[in-house]
Specification:
The structure is a homodimer.
Chain A (H helix, E strand, L loop, with lengths): L2 H11 L4 E4 L6 H6 L7 E4 L3 H15 L3 E6 H7 L1 H10 L2 E8 L2 H4 L9 H5 L5 E4 L3 H14 L4 E8 H5 L19 H12 L4 E5 L6 H14 L2 E4 L5 E4 L7 E2 L4 H8 L4 E5 L23 E6 L5 H12 L22 H11 L5 E5 L7 H5 L5 E4 L9 H11 L5 E6 H4 L5 H7 L4 E7 L4 H9 L7 H5 L10 H7 L4 E4 L2 H13 L4 E6 L2
Parallel strand pairs in A: 1-2, 1-3, 3-4, 4-6, 5-6, 7-8, 7-11, 8-10, 11-12, 13-14, 13-15, 15-16, 16-18, 17-18
Antiparallel strand pairs in A: 9-14
Helix pairs in contact in A: 1-8, 3-5, 3-16, 10-13, 11-13, 14-22, 16-18
Protein name (chains A, B): Acetolactate synthase-1/2/3 large subunit
Pfam families (chains A, B): TPP_enzyme_C, TPP_enzyme_N
Family (chains A, B): Belongs to the TPP enzyme family.
Chain lengths: ~500, ~500
């Protein structure tokens, strides 16, 4: 058995049975070995950033890592932005990065670059397999190392892949998630028993159904307000769950949301900071006289900690739950809010919403909060171009659930070739492009940072209108049925039709 | 004056007056300052890999650096593959990478990542500007540091950009290119005076017009064969220049091309190695009993060294020059060779050819060798997705010259949004997509590496046919007029029409 065969078999045995791939010459034995291990599903992408974003989406929906197959340093570089997002969301992932054969390495061939240095910036585990006899054990260790989140990068020299002498390695026991000590729960309970205003700030496993219900119980019993991080990796939402606000993105709104808070209790979240620094604005929204308490860190068993806290601090309380409610279908002008209302009115049960709406997301959270239960995936690391790939990964992870991508136009172009993979995999994804013809978030930020010049040249650099992007043509060019909506009614009709038919669709929502 | 204003003014004063940009929030003051320094031309791209590839193409055609403007670590990551190509081709370039404000850095905001570590893998000069008072001097140093090729990366914290207190810095004197010592020229002349078979192996400035004419003179006088690197950054070609073969890409062909060579004299080139290692194949094509001599390294003044060598070794010889000749226009089936013949028949004078044809490039060099004088830009680093961006940069550099991109279909998808910038800049670029519906090079490589499995699953991972990519729709969706050619006659008609009309065009050449 060669190294590639042993590697793939070991990954499958360890539960990694999907690989988002964009292979090159140095990965040809891996590709060939896929025919020997049919349990590994390979999903072809046309760009590595699609592969890494898809692996992120897959991990968020399954809790398990997918593999990626990337072609040397430049291929890994193409995947880097979405690896960054995955790192920030703590998604587990196993990157397999092909490299030159060991004998070829010292020749400094044209594709040679420092893979290990770049991999170190986003990986929690990096190893270069040095021999066919090692590669399977390396792979088993990679999977075990990221059981509680994080990216493992295995650099695979071509000859380690092609040489014989490899053997399958058995899965290693996964380290259990660290549990939170009872004393920590008791301390937090004591804080919440006081009368000072407190916020329970939620992320990671505290925004699952179980986590939210426990948090809701705590809130009902103690009066602590609930709030989630601005961009949690995956949030359970909808009717039957507590109504939990997100910390707003704009610094002033975030500071207002936390004003007066004396105790900020972190559950699966880190203390919030603003996305960017701005002249004359503090770097984070936590009030100066607010004490930060850690119930659980991301990666710890925050769900159990929240349940323990609920039993201790609010044993008899019942969480206040959202009743089923949907906005009315709007008519007329297709504003961002009208788009949000259409989505809220039609969102199907068990939908997976991939949210890269950015500035066009006005009202989106509010108008979907009482919809049937769904999951919401956000842009964890701020590196735009995550939405279309993540939707692919979510659809591969959950083929029986509809995926709705709400996608800013400028961001869509970073990884637009993901649409081809949507079509190829016949993935049940409906992408709604928020088509405002501009980098609207940057137009806002240009004034936001207090930049003096708002002359013609600066403005032109934030405008996508010359020429306009025709997302219907782009989608159709990659095999995805597409249509254009210019009124709220058209969007509703087209969304209904797209949801009624399996497979990918794209709706170009031309916003006013 | 704030840091951004001083930075841009300093760059312009140092001769850097084009910036390929994909800005984000942290670069908003740079964007605003563009209105204060109108001499800086900003070219918007929708993806950072387009910006870096364009800067590479610009540098190849002008010999001068362009700037890029990239958004933090993930933006730089998106640009990494084409930064790799630029590094391999020794293109000068100044990256400006925006980063968090200094006060925000320690907060580990979502977009935080290790910019400096990644920049170090492709840059020959890296600096993080620490204060507004430093940034202009840093910029002047960046430009001077890469006068002879290489990438300078300047990390620009947002507050260094927005704070007042900066002053413009004067350009630093550029280090002259190192000259080759006369003794080196004499040693090489002595080798070539012998009777053993020699090859003059050319790259960098040895494949300019002057370099090639001097090399041709040496060849005519000494019998040394001429050969260029497989993928030189820029080669002068066409009637009136010596006929110089490229070292072939496939290992066996490369070894055959150098078989029997006893002396390999490097002029602006490094000793050749195969792109990849293969089982049972040596890593490079240089025969074991061949001595390698260095006339000039890339970055040295190889043109002067070649002229000195010509005067010393072949003072009375005259180079053998290609006569003007074009293939006849083919008819019927549109094979790769027919495509090459159409291009050879119609290539306009002073064209810039951007070659990312890969497997579809069969016969391309041969059938264009006697065409009117033109420049040929190749994929220096092997990171695919360079062609469309590089064409943009070449067109911005040389607005009075037609640019012809010969573009493999699979590779085109990595940076397809470059077409939008072609349209926005009204760049005179005709892109011919070699549409064979597959990663043909990988199908070849799969058999080439001796991989056992050629089953269905491996094959599917190299096939772009399900669904087919409609490049006409993709181009039109980004504002580029496009057509489809399925016969040699159609390609000829469409290429003629595209060349007759200024601005961008795309022809989808459906190859048999």
């Amino acid at each position: 058995m060669n190294g590639a065969q042993a590697l793939i078999r070991t990954l499958v045995d360890a539960g990694v049975d999907v690989c988002f791939a964009n292979p090159g010459t140095s990965e040809m034995h891996f590709v060939a070995a896929l025919d020997d291990v049919p349990e590994m599903r390979a999903v072809l992408t046309l760009f590595e950033g699609v592969a890494t974003g898809a692996a992120d989406g897959y991990a968020r929906m399954t809790g398990r890592p997918a593999a990626t197959l990337l072609h040397l340093g430049p291929g890994m570089g193409n995947g880097l932005a979405n690896l960054h997002n995955a790192r920030r969301g703590r998604a587990p992932m196993v990157n397999v990065v092909g490299d030159h054969a060991r004998s070829h390495k010292r020749l400094d061939a044209p594709l040679e670059s420092d893979i290990d240095a770049v991999a170190g910036t986003f990986s929690s585990w990096v190893r270069r397999s040095l021999a066919p006899a090692d590669v399977a054990a390396d792979a088993a260790e990679a999977v075990a190392a990221i059981a509680n989140g994080g990216i493992a990068t295995l650099v695979l020299p071509a000859d380690v892949s092609w040489e014989e002498g490899a053997e399958v390695a058995r899965p290693l026991p996964a380290r259990p998630r660290p549990r939170v000590a009872p004393s920590v729960v008791e301390e937090v309970a004591a804080v919440l028993a006081g009368s000072e205003p407190a916020v329970l700030f939620l992320g990671a496993d505290a925004v699952t159904e179980d986590g939210l219900l426990a948090a809701g119980q705590v809130s009902a019993g103690t009066g602590a307000r609930l709030m989630t991080e601005t961009f949690p990796a995956r949030t359970a939402r909808g009717a039957g769950l507590p109504d939990v606000a997100r910390l707003p993105y704009p610094p002033e709104m975030a500071m207002a949301a936390l004003a007066g808070t004396k105790h900020l209790v972190l559950a699966g979240a880190t203390a919030p900071v603003h996305f960017f620094g701005y002249p004359g604005v503090p770097g984070h929204p936590v009030p100066e006289d607010c004490t930060v308490h850690v119930l659980s860190e991301p990666g710890e068993d925050g769900g159990a900690a929240l349940r323990a806290l609920a039993e201790l601090a609010a044993p008899d309380a019942r969480p206040e739950l959202l009743e089923a409610s949907r906005p009315e279908l709007p008519t007329g002008e297709l504003t961002p809010r009208a788009m949000a209302a259409v989505i809220g009115a039609l969102l199907p049960e068990r939908a997976i919403v991939v949210d890269e709406a950015l500035t066009s997301g006005v009202g989106l959270m509010e108008l979907t909060s009482g919809a049937p239960r769904h999951d919401w995936l956000a842009l964890t690391g701020g590196a735009i171009g995550d939405g279309l790939p993540m939707a692919l990964g979510a659809a591969v992870a959950c083929p029986d659930r509809p995926v709705i991508g709400i996608q800013a136009d400028g961001s869509a172009m970073y990884t637009i070739s993901a649409l081809w993979s949507h079509a190829r995999e016949e993935a049940d994804i409906t992408t709604i492009v928020c088509d405002n013809g501009s980098y609207a978030i940057l137009q806002h930020e240009l004034s936001r940072v207090g930049a003096a010049g708002d002359g013609e040249r600066a403005a032109k650099l934030l405008d996508l209108g010359g020429p306009g992007l025709d997302f219907v043509a782009l989608a159709q060019g990659m095999g995805v049925p597409a249509s254009r909506a210019t009124t709220a009614e058209e969007l509703a009709d087209q969304l209904r039709a797209a949801l009624a038919e399996p497979g990918p669709h794209l709706i170009d929502a031309v916003l006013r």
